[in-house]
Design brief:
Blueprint lengths: L2 H14 L5 H8 L3 H14 L19 H13 L6 H11 L6 H10 L26 E12 L2 E10 L5 E7 L4 H15 L4 E4 L15 H8 L3 E4 L7 H20 L5 H20 L19 H4 L2 E6 L5 E4 L2 E6 L10 E6 L5 E5 L2 E2 L1 E5 L11
Parallel strand pairs: 1-4, 4-5
Antiparallel strand pairs: 1-2, 2-3, 6-9, 7-8, 8-12, 9-10, 10-11
Helix pairs in contact: 1-3
């Protein structure tokens, strides 16, 4: 059973027992009320087996060959580049003889970024979003660059529980980058368990506009079954924004009063003194007393989840290029890895490892001699 299926089963079990309301369950699972009703019906009649879909392992009967998709996208890019999707599909069907369902063609166009957008419409009304009913259902997450202490700017990264407004493992860093955010997220999960939703802005490191296809953070959270929700505006994640305003108003003078000017002492004071007092003063009680955090799967190693994972293809001479350096790759059992695709992992401390399937590989850095320019005498 995958982590996503485990999450669905746990939420449906809580809804069936009355511990979780249906509206919250629909939002966490990102399904309609009708789908939630079907889940409940299957859970009550089949138990755990309701998660197994009848078509699992079968090839869809209506799948289109890759050649058709490639031909349609090529026509839209090179011939019909100034056509909208509806018009372009009509021309492709009439002149090129490719019959493609409307939704399939729309999905191909969006995936290939060949959509002719309309003029901006009037914005939709925005309504106040109520808190989640349980602690651990949603964590709002962000970083704030500010002159927190001393004479330089640092970044405070923290999570804020949506149901209680409690600070969750805040920590100072030099900047807001992928590794630093992973450290805070890992600490939150180690201390509390696995939450359900992460609510963030559309920054690139969270998989926003700049990295809409992939980010290391969203990849790590997906391995744990955590979904990411992107705020459409700063006001959308107002809870964490207001917390930073409070921190800038109260934490900065406290650090100055205690003559703290180093990041190590600031983190120690933040964790041991300020955060407990802040949560005692400003956190609120959740509507439901039961925690929404899920226990971490014992087989999951968070150190192997919250790290940078990239893939490389091994050359015939058993080397790879990574971060502008060459590395010799050896299999511990002496197997050939020529032209095999391996996974390279970089951990927060800077250590590096490589894996092929479940086997950890041996990496040896190749020191290359720099070319010197010889001047003829």
């Amino acid at each position: 059973m995958s982590s996503n299926e485990q999450q669905i089963f746990e939420i449906i079990r809580q809804v069936d027992s009355g511990k979780l309301d249906r509206r919250t369950a629909c939002e966490v699972l990102d399904v309609s009320e009708r789908s939630l009703y079907r889940y409940l019906k299957g859970f009550r009649s089949k138990g755990l087996m309701f998660l197994k879909h009848g078509n699992r392992g079968r090839k869809p009967s209506n799948v289109h060959p890759y050649e058709v998709k490639a031909a349609a996208i090529k026509i839209m890019r090179e011939v019909l580049f100034d056509f909208n999707m509806t018009h372009g599909r009509e021309v492709i069907q009439e002149k090129f003889g490719l019959k493609i369902p409307r939704e399939t063609f729309r999905r191909w166009c969006h995936a290939g970024d060949i959509v002719k957008h309309r003029h901006k419409r009037r914005s939709k009304p925005k309504y106040k979003r109520t808190r989640k009913t349980q602690m651990g259902l949603m964590v709002q997450f962000d970083g704030s660059h500010h002159q927190w202490f001393g004479d330089r700017k640092t970044c405070l990264i923290t999570g804020v529980d949506d149901a209680t407004s409690s600070l969750m493992e805040p920590e100072f860093f030099e900047s807001e980058n992928t590794m630093d955010c992973m450290v805070v997220l890992k600490n939150i999960i180690e201390k509390n368990g696995v939450f359900r939703l992460l609510y963030v802005d559309r920054a690139g490191l969270y998989g926003g506009m700049k990295r809409s296809g992939f980010s290391q953070i969203t990849r790590a959270l997906k391995e744990l079954g955590i979904s990411v929700i992107y705020a459409q505006s700063p006001e959308g994640k107002g809870r964490v924004e207001r917390v930073f305003r409070t921190l800038q108003d109260r934490l900065v003078p406290e650090l100055r009063l205690n003559k703290i000017e180093s990041i190590e002492l600031a983190n120690k004071y933040l964790k041991t003194v300020y955060t407990p007092d802040h949560n005692r003063r400003f956190s609120v009680e959740a509507e439901e007393p039961e925690s929404g955090f899920l226990p971490l799967d014992p087989s999951m190693d968070l150190n192997e989840v919250f790290c940078i994972k990239e893939h490389r293809t091994v050359t015939p001479d058993h080397t790879i290029s990574f971060k502008a350096e060459r590395w010799k790759v050896k299999h511990p059992k002496g197997l050939s890895l020529s032209r095999r695709r391996i996974e390279v992992r970089v951990y927060p401390g800077g250590e590096m490892a490589a894996y092929f399937l479940n086997d950890k590989l041996i990496l040896e850095k190749i020191h290359t001699n720099r070319r010197t320019d010889k001047v003829a005498g």
